Amino acid sequence: MIVNIIMFFTMYPVLLVLYFCFRGQYQYANGCLFAVNMKPEWIKEPKVQEIVEKFQTEMKRYVIILMLVPFTSFFTKYMSIQLTIWMMWILLVIGLLCLPLIHANGALKKWKREQKLYDSAVMEHYVELKAVGKVRRVKFLTFFLPNLVGLVISLMPLLVKIIFPDFAKNVELGSVSWLCVIMWLCGLLLWVCAVWMDKQPVAVISSDSDINLNFTRAKKNIWKKFWLAANWMNTLFLFTIPVSALWIADMGMSVLIASVVYTLLICGLAVLLMRQMKNVERAYESKQDLTASEADDRHWIGGIFYYNPEDRHSMVTKKVGIGTTMNLATPLGKGMTIFSAIALIVTIPVMCIWLIMLEFTPIRLQVENQTLYAKHLNVDYEIDVTDIENLDKITELPSWSKSCGTAMDTLEKGTFFIRNVGKCEVFLNPENTEFLHFTADGTDYYMSGYDDAQTEEIYQMIQNRK
Fold it and tell me: Which residues pair with 29 in a beta bridge?
């Protein structure tokens, strides 16, 4: 259940953000409809109106389907199945919400070809030389401060371990330190993105350099505020991690709540960014009198992917959404496309299959030749029976948090941490009612077989062989 709650708060908003991003394409703006260059008088054509209506119908149909699919995750108790539903749903959201736009984009291009509306003139690429290097909104100190604060916060667990060693023994600081470092690196990545976006060339929409400067300055200012706000949000979220570990009993729930709030705030920030960008584009729409080579809609596949071998630029401004996208005709564009395809189409399904194997492969304990074997997908633990001390059979497990390993409703294995006690090794099915607790070579172990009968059998075998 907890997985579904997390996913609904962190993943479900993605559907709404993408829906509003694609839905607005049926409106004529910036001289485009469905990412196809159009003149205002063409919009009233019956065929064009038919394409618009078909797009709206198709979009509504897909959104209704996509809104319902995640609720199927409530019909299974298995975390791996729940995560698989959500991961495949994300791929489905990206694919299905693109389809209506791709269909409408293709239909409009076909209509333009039939009407012989494409200009045969060679498109030129304009570069604003007068304003080169003049539009920079990202300042070093502005972004250095949140990342400096983040660095100090990420060092808190290490400082506590050095200054208060006795206190540090009672809390889990190992995995907390790594999580803090990862989140701090995320803050640095946000800073890098801000600098990269700020160094993009001046947008050329007019023969008047002042218009180009003001248009670019307005958009880069919005981007700067977005990245800066996201950076501070990341720092605040980073702050909750060591605080939760050091002073809050239920660290997991505290970090969970903080991550949900963080995700919702970032989504809200993205929506605000899109709205502000649209306002800027509308304000300058009447001042546009130039068309660059990337504006030729014939170079845009489905209005989403840009492919122009004659354009040497690796990055161009998107026709759909905000920001920039790759020119797939360049080596960098091809490389990033292949990498993204592997990450989405291959990595996610493989990860889902691995999670299902983890959860549905039964664990088992086995004693052979005076050795206790804990087996799952492979042999996880080998413990000499003569080293086992203080063997006890328990019916209740302590409250712990995972440091490294797997934590599912039907499987817990790896290194876990018990507050005010320390680390322990876990290999069990938490749905059982009987478990083995013992020490070996100074390490605490909690184990069980795939059911209580096997746990009892192993308990008796160890007792008889000691």
Answer: 32
Report how far residue 399's alpha carbon sits from residue 419's, in angstroms, rounded to the nearest whole number.
8
| Predicted confidence (pLDDT) per residue in 395-404, tens digit | 999 988 887 8
Helices 156-163 and 209-247: crossing angle in degrees, nearest 10, is 30
Q: Please compute Rg for the chain using Cα positions.
A: 28
For residue 48, what are its two tokens?
């064009």
For residue 139, the SS3 value is: coil
Contact 446, 439 (CB under 8 A): no
> Which residue, 147, 127, 238, is CA-closest to 192?
147
Q: What single string gives the DSSP state of each residue in 241-258?
A: HHHHHHH-S-HHHHHHHH
Cα–Cα distance between 143 and 151 in angstroms, integer?
13
The answer for residues whose C-beta is within 8 angstroms of residue 313's C-beta and 6 or more apart is 125, 294, 327, 330
Q: Supply the DSSP symbol for 345.
A: I
Higher pLDDT, 313 or 98: 98
- CA gap 335, 323 in Å, rounded: 19
Q: What is the mean pLDDT of residues 292-297?
A: 64
Confidence of residue 274 (pLDDT cuts 50, 70, 90): confident
Place of tokens 């060679």: 122
| Residue 426 contacts residue 414 (beta carbons within 8 Å) | yes
- Count Cβ atoms below 10 Å from residue 130 Cβ, excluding itself: 11
pLDDT in tens, 38-52: 888 889 899 999 999
DSSP string for 413-441: EEEEEETTTEEEEEEE-TT-S-EEEEEET
E strand map for 261-411: 300-301, 305-306, 315-317, 324-326, 364-368, 371-375, 379-384, 388-394, 400-407
Read off the pLDDT of residues 176-188 as tens digits, 9 standing for 90 and up: 888 899 999 999 9
CA of 101: how far to CAs of 37, 235, 282, 325, in Å? 14, 37, 21, 17
CB atoms under 10 Å from CB of 169, counted, come to 12
Alpha carbons 193 and 230: distance in angstroms, whole number: 11
* CA atoms of 412 and 402, how far apart (whole Å): 9
Task: State whether the Cα torsion 288-289-292-294 is positive or negative.
Answer: positive
Using an 8 Å Cβ cutoff, are 127 and 312 in contact? no
